[in-house]
Specification:
It holds the Pfam family HypD. The chain is of the alpha/beta class. About 40% of the residues lie in helices and about 20% in strands. Strands 2-1-7-8-9 form a 5-stranded parallel β-sheet. Helix 1 (about 5-15) packs parallel to helix 12, helix 2 (about 30-35) packs parallel to helix 17 and helix 8 crosses helix 13. It is globular and about 65 Å long. The two termini are about 30 Å apart. It binds iron/sulfur cluster.
């Protein structure tokens, strides 16, 4: 059915909804589109839209950020990272360096990059130095990083990898006693790369309605409508409401590179803990580009920091959809985009930052 946003809203309003329905999204881009368009207030009051684990910067463990800061400060390297990551604070004493941005101010050579192409260019332009690429991201970011390595990079380009898979976090929530949602809107960007088929488990193992959505109002509202109808009719299936880009199998070339260069590992998520088979590590063929092997001296100290969160920061519960950003006591008081306490207020994909920039209140 091809309808405009108003027509989709009308369709949703005509549904005989139960007292409360909770729809979770797992993509920072979805949360941004929902919040910027004001979809929460446009939908009937009994529909709750819950932002879930959709921000890769927010789930990057504190110890990885700490390790990146230490390598940048103590080794003769150029450290590059996507811009959001530079402002993510670690939980150390005020007199110590708390972010890559502060390390840069102390003289470390740290440069923001927008793409793997930038990273390769910097490595080629600086053959006498190691260029350490702190690469944190979900499948959509990790696949181009893998393609970069598969296509060949200079020897001085090293990876400090903090890649994560999206679906295991949803699987972990669904395996818990209280997942906290009744329907799932699956991430369009991730499904473009990995294929819609990764999300069938939501329906097949948990009998929950699910729909893959794109990023405009029409696609999101179509996904909400589809999942609500599935719920009402008690006939869950995985609907693809982003057929322009999403196929069942995803991007074959991107996946080929990804699994040639990366292997799936257990991984720690900031404030959440270890989620089985939810991270990426380099395969044996690419270990020469592993910054952790070249600069191992910071790992013991970094590992001791596992589980560190700033006092009072509720990012983990925000990421898991257990509370809304405004329910964190620090939101808008001690924690603002100008003075972020947790990563959810730093990243453009963090729910706290998105809410503060667009609505400020629920
Ligand atoms: Fe963390 Fe700040 Fe969000 Fe609270 S408002 S959860 S401290 S990022």
């Amino acid at each position: 059915m091809s309808l405009n946003a108003q027509q989709w809203l009308q369709q949703i309003r005509q549904l005989p909804l139960p007292e409360k329905v909770r729809i979770m999204n797992v993509c920072g881009g979805h949360e941004r589109s929902i919040t910027q368009a004001g979809l929460r207030s446009a939908l009937p009051d009994n529909i709750e839209l819950i932002p879930g684990p959709g921000c890769p910067v927010c789930v990057c463990p504190e110890e990885d950020v700490y390790e990146a800061i230490q390598i940048a400060l103590n080794e003769e390297v150029i450290l590059v990272a996507f811009g959001d990551m530079l402002r993510v604070p670690v939980n150390v004493r005020k007199s110590e360096v708390r972010s890559l941005e502060q390390a840069k101010a102390r003289g470390a050579d740290i440069r923001p990059v927008a793409s793997p192409t930038d990273v390769v260019r910097i490595a080629r332009d600086n053959p006498d130095k190691d260029v350490v690429f702190f690469a944190a991201g979900f499948e959509t970011t990790t696949a181009p990083v893998a393609a970069m390595l598969a296509e060949g990079v200079p020897d001085n380009l090293l990876l400090l990898l903090s890649g994560r898979l999206t679906w295991p976090a949803v699987a972990m929530l669904l395996a818990s006693d209280e997942p906290g949602f009744d329907c799932l809107v699956a991430p369009g960007h991730v499904a473009t790369v990995m294929g819609a088929k990764e999300w069938h488990f939501v329906v097949e193992q948990h009998q929950l309605p699910a729909a893959v959505a794109g990023f405009n109002n029409e696609s999101l509202l179509a996904a909400f409508y589809s999942s609500l109808r599935q719920l009402l009719e008690d006939k869950p299936f995985l609907d693809n409401c982003y057929p322009e880009l999403v196929t069942e199998e995803g991007n074959a070339q991107a996946k080929k590179h990804l699994y040639e260069v990366m292997q799936v590992t257990d991984a720690n998520w900031r404030g959440i803990g270890t989620i089985p088979a939810s991270g990426f590590g380099l395969t044996r063929k690419y270990t020469a580009h592993d910054a952790r092997l070249k600069y191992p001296g910071y790992q013991d100290e970094a590992r001791k920091r596992a589980g560190e969160m700033p006092p009072g920061c509720d990012c983990a519960r925000v990421v898991l959809g257990k509370i809304y950003p405004t329910e964190c006591k620090l939101y808008g008081a001690a924690c603002t985009p100008r003075n972020p306490i947790g990563p959810c207020m730093v990243s453009d994909e963090g729910a706290c930052r998105i809410w503060w920039s667009n609505v400020r209140k629920p």
